[in-house]
Design a protein that fits this description.
The chain is of the alpha/beta class and 394 residues long. The chain has helices spanning 5-20, 25-32, 36-48, 112-128, 167-175, 184-195, 254-257, 260-273, 277-286, 291-299, 303-327, 343-356, 359-362, 376-391; strands at 23-24, 52-57, 67-71, 77-82, 86-92, 98-105, 137-142, 146-147, 152-153, 179-183, 204-209, 213-219, 222-223, 331-335, 367-369. A hairpin with a 2-residue loop joins β12 and β13 (222-223). This is Glucokinase-like ROK family protein.
Length: 394
């Protein structure tokens, strides 16, 4: 799609106000490198559309004081992060500061009608509570492949009933505003770029390790989604030729070997066999085991649990080493639920990446934990929502 010059200017201007707060007209003209009369014309258009407003007078720069401009205080965006077992929603203002937040357990396998109905109910509650009069855009991330162009999930392995479901269309119609749909790891990468450890870094990988494994790819300051929107689906790279069957139907995928479900499976085997007395005790107490149990047992010094985490880190690191040699990123960020396993996992991933990648690519390559943690998804969804609203500003 061709973007008109005024649309590109509006997007740059509104992003500046979103990311930096109130800015004087004089400074805006300098930053955007446009003549003052043109800036004033564009600001008048954006003010008439309800996107910007005046915010008092700027400090003097030696002459007449310039007027400060800010995003309109009324602006509201809804950010929705759907996980395999959770719904997280934030309603944010134009600066992407949360004004309301809702979180609850939910099973993505219950299907799109039930999940999206609950999303709509939570947003309706926010409206009833006076959080917003109207939404200006909605951003939503889902745990599966997405056609970004069409706004629909496509054959998501852990989301039965969601294939080609018109998520974007239905949300836009329900709330009377633009909507945008993306893969959950892409929105996490956007969130980390906006307000986390990767702030202002143009080339990095965000690796989500949770129920599944995915990779958000940031290149030249933008998310790289690939031709059809499925770039970064590293959980289905074959990591072991004769490994266990994956949810996608293939064998030996990375996430079949190490993910929340895979770690719980291996912990259960270790507990039942007696290989780990600590896990056997937890199994006897609760009747089941989760990845969290492995983390707790490892923190208490259980050798088997530490070994399970290290094995997983080695497998993830081996895949990432290939990506580092291929893409040469400036940083790797590790997030998702299993990032809570902490430095045992991180140290193993670092060790393998540094050992197996080209020295030139790893000489200055930080491999770090996500700073935003569980808020990365909603933060990125808010960025997406604001961008789609700003793109339509006139």
């Amino acid at each position: 799609m061709t973007v008109r010059p005024d649309e590109a200017l509006h997007l740059r201007l509104l992003r500046l106000l979103r990311d930096h707060g109130a800015i004087s007209r004089a400074e805006l003209a300098d930053r955007l490198r446009i003549p003052r009369p043109r800036l004033l014309t564009e600001l008048d258009r954006l003010a008439a559309a309800g996107f910007v407003s005046e915010a008092g007078m700027a400090a003097s720069r030696g002459g007449r004081r310039s007027t400060l401009v800010e995003l309109h205080p009324r602006l509201r965006f809804a950010a929705v992060d759907l996980g395999a077992s959770s719904i997280d929603i934030e309603v944010v203002n134009g600066r992407l500061e949360p004004v309301a937040a809702y979180a609850e357990a939910a099973d993505i396998r219950s299907g799109p009608r039930a999940i999206l109905q609950r999303v709509n109910e939570l947003l309706a509650k926010a409206r009833t509570d006076g959080v917003y009069e109207r939404l200006d855009a909605i951003g939503i991330g889902v745990p599966g492949p997405v056609s970004y162009r069409d706004g629909v999930p496509v054959s998501p392995p852990i989301m039965p009933g969601w294939d080609r479901y018109p998520v974007r269309e239905l949300l836009a119609r329900e709330h009377g505003c633009p909507a945008v749909v993306d893969n959950d790891v892409n929105i996490m990468a956007l969130g980390e770029r906006h307000g986390g450890v990767a702030h202002s870094i143009d080339d990095f990988l965000y690796v989500k390790i949770g129920t599944g494994i995915g990779c958000g790819i940031f290149l030249s300051g933008e998310v790289y989604r690939g031709t059809d929107g499925c770039a970064g689906d590293i959980g289905h790279i074959m990591a072991e030729p004769h490994g266990p069957v994956c949810s996608c139907g293939n064998s030996g995928c990375l996430e079949a070997l190490f993910s929340g479900a895979a770690l719980a499976r291996d912990a259960l085997a270790a507990g039942r066999s007696g290989a780990s007395p600590a896990l056997a005790e937890r199994l006897a107490t609760s009747g089941t085991l989760s990845a969290r149990d492995v983390g707790l047992a490892a923190a208490e010094g259980d050798i088997t649990s530490i070994g399970l985490i290290r094995d997983g880190g080695r497998r993830v690191g081996s895949v990432l080493a290939g990506l580092v040699s291929f893409a040469n990123p400036s940083m790797i960020v590790i997030g998702g639920g299993l990032a809570q396993l902490g430095h045992v996992l991180l140290a193993e991933i670092r060790s393998v990446v540094y050992r197996r990648s080209l020295p030139l690519a790893t000489g200055n390559l930080p491999v770090v934990l996500s700073e935003l943690a569980s808020r990365a998804g909603v933060t990125g969804a808010a960025v997406l929502a604001s961008d789609v609203a700003f793109e339509q500003a006139s």
